[in-house]
Amino acid sequence: MNVAFPSTIIRHFVNYTQKEIFTTEKYLYLKALRGIAIIVSTKGTDKNADKAIRGTLRENGKLIISLTNKDLITMIERKATDNNLPAEFLSEKLDNMLVDLEK
């Protein structure tokens, strides 16, 4: 089974508002296998940024996952105590996002 992975990882750590989400979305390009971004911010995203993240997924098929410091700590703790993969935590976040996605 051949799996293609993106060759570019963009790192940018700020507290995200709607403006920064739209800027991040411009870096994503589906044909170049850059359709996913994981953003990490201390305080997380604000309400408008969350709406922009859902809109980007719904309208353009580009996935932006927002993680906070607390999310990173949770992934580390789950890995250490439950031998639970961090990917499972990300999968849960994605599932919750898809359930809440407006039509």
Automatic annotation (TrEMBL):
It comes from Anaerocolumna chitinilytica. This is Uncharacterized protein.
